User: What shape does this take?
Amino acid sequence: MHTSLCVCIALLACAEAWTPIIVKNVKQLGPQLSPDVTRVSRDGGYSVLLGDRVIWLYDDTECLDLSGKQLSFVSNTAAYAKDPNKNLSILQDFGVEAAGREKKSGKTDYAILADKTVRTGGWIDFSDDELYFNKERKGKERVAICNVHVPRNGADIDALR
Assistant: This one.
């Protein structure tokens, strides 16, 4: 009985400290656009405000050519809003490189490449063992890193410059 009383008191203390979050306004921004990448598909995206920059962090990021062929697949990527005061949905991606040429049009395909992003393997580094595992499995199995890390300190901000 003593234990249940302590639990009740603890729950009441937590309940009193809780402040509800009320959303007063929502603005639809439309689809995010990455004009420097031929075609991109992402999941697990969220944004943070760092100084005057809006940074977007993603889990899996797949880049495709115009016919739908995969150009790259990166476990986690980062981008920032090119002009957050005018349009939050236009992005500048890290690690965009030429990744081939369209046969029909002759246009160059651009993709986000793992070894050209903020760090090796994406926003969050893979360990040597994780890189080795992914290379050995060749897509049959893989280590994936989900972006649950919100940049907060100077080292994170410097990594995005």
The longest helix spans residues 2-17. The chain is about 20% helix and 30% strand. The two ends are 57 Å apart (CA to CA). The mean pLDDT is 75.
